[in-house]
Amino acid sequence: MVSARPNDTDKPIRQQLYLRALKTLPKVSIHLGHFLTHEVMMPLALPPGQPQKYVRVIKTEEKGSDVNLATHLIHDAHTGKFDAAVVVSNDSDLLGPIKIVRQELKKKVGVLNPQMHPSRAILPHIDFMKQIRAGVLKLAQFPPSLSDAHGTFKKPIGW
Q1: pLDDT band at 1 (very low <50, low <70, confident <90, very high)
Q2: What is the C-alpha separation between 97 and 75, in angstroms, rounded?
Q3: For the domain 64-142, what is the CATH code?
Q4: What CA–CA distance (Å, rounded) separates 122 from 47?
Q5: What is the 3-state secondary structure (H, E, C) of the chain?
Q6: Which of 7, 17, 33, 127 is the most buried (most CB within 10 A)?
Q7: Rg from Cα positions in the chain
Q8: Would you state the pLDDT for residue 37?
Q9: b/e per residue, 109-128, with b = 16+ CB within 10 A?
Q10: DSSP β-ladder status, 108-113 and 34-43
């Protein structure tokens, strides 16, 4: 779960609304990772020839989501829950699980790429790849309001 930041105090509220919206989809299951946030010293980007300077920054790292995705991809393939999987990621850390699912479990795996350039490491090892186009993504948004067992809720401004 995300935490509020001084410049974005509503971040956890927006995440909770998004997770609540996802829960309205009967075939979607949510598997969370976690965030590590800590202060570290990082080098400043400076023009060549200038002495290096360092600044203290807040570094947030997301942990566990790729492992959760890989685990469920292999488990679901092994238990026969799909004939073809679609992975929405460009993370080359998923190459090993994708290879196992295709080579050992004989399932098709495709990638819906959320970034501009597909991972060159993954590309030779998948059955298909499609770019997520901005227009299609816009059409796939949740409606402005949704209802669940707890009532009606609205999509935040800025989504």
Answers
A1: confident
A2: 10
A3: 3.40.50.1010
A4: 35
A5: CCCCECCECCHHHHHHHHHHHHCCCCCCCCCCCEEEEEEEEEECCCCCCCCCCEEEEEEEEEECHHHHHHHHHHHHHHCCCCCEEEECCCCHHHHHHHHHHHHHCCCEEEEEECCCCCCCCCHHHCCEEEECCHHHHHHCCCCCEEEECCEEEECCCCC
A6: 17
A7: 20
A8: 85
A9: bbbebeeeeebeebeebbee
A10: unpaired
CA–CA separation, 143 and 150 (whole Å): 17
Domains of the chain by residue range: 1-63, 64-142
- In the predicted model, is pLDDT for residue 148 greater than 80? yes
Residues 6+ apart with CB under 8 A from 109: 73, 84, 85, 86, 87, 98, 101, 102, 126, 127
Question: What is the per-residue pLDDT for 142?
Answer: 93
